[in-house]
Specification:
The complex is a heterodimer of chains A (143) and B (84).
Chain A: H1 3-31, H2 43-68, H3 79-108, H4 113-141
Chain B: E1 7-9, H1 11-17, H2 23-30, H3 34-41, H4 49-58, H5 63-66, E2 67-69
Antiparallel strand pairs in B: 1-2
The chains are: A mainly alpha (143), B mainly alpha (84).
Chain lengths: 143, 84
Amino acid sequence: MGFKEKLYIAILAVTLLIFGWYFTDAFSAADQGYTTVADFGPKLWIMLAIYIAVVIAVTIITSIITKIKEGEIDQDFDERDTMIDLKAERITSYTQAFMLFGVLVLVMMEYNTFILAHAILGMMVLTTFIGFGVRLYLYRRGV
Amino acid sequence: MVKPTLIKNNIRTLRFMAGEMTQAALAKKIGMTRQTIIAIEQERYSPSLEAAFMIAEALNAPLEEVFQYQSDTKTQDETSPDTK
């Protein structure tokens, strides 16, 4: 298993843990009748910051480890990695478009801002999750 | 689970014949990652034409000796029309 595959597994595990915990909390809050984001305190803002931090951290960690490994392997990214990235991005974009449509339906059904904000955050997290999952699948299965 | 490719190869054998070249050495020589070389050897990835030529050159072997294409379709019979 290559370095990228291990990194993607780590990202998927961390994403699942953090956001799984958060959305469990959010679902119970929705059951309790929370209708606005303000009702939930700063938690949503914190999760948004965490999401952005995870994306930035992945980019930085990948760059740092690539620099460290430069002495061992000259090429850190080749045609196979590019092809896998392109295929994963294509699938991710279809998924994102589909989910965006779902969020639009929620807006048209006039759901409250608490539900809408979490639907959008859920869409972003799920899209990221699917993107890394597809990459892992293509690395293992072949492309 | 593994998606099969129609392109078979003898890279592993030719590597050993080329002075027991390691996967890392071959990868470094042609500018690819070792993981990609492993995927090619295990037939989980079909390299681009350019990469295929670079691999053949690195192994000092003709392209046909390195890669073979296995078609699933049966060979069609070739019949010449009667010109009488």
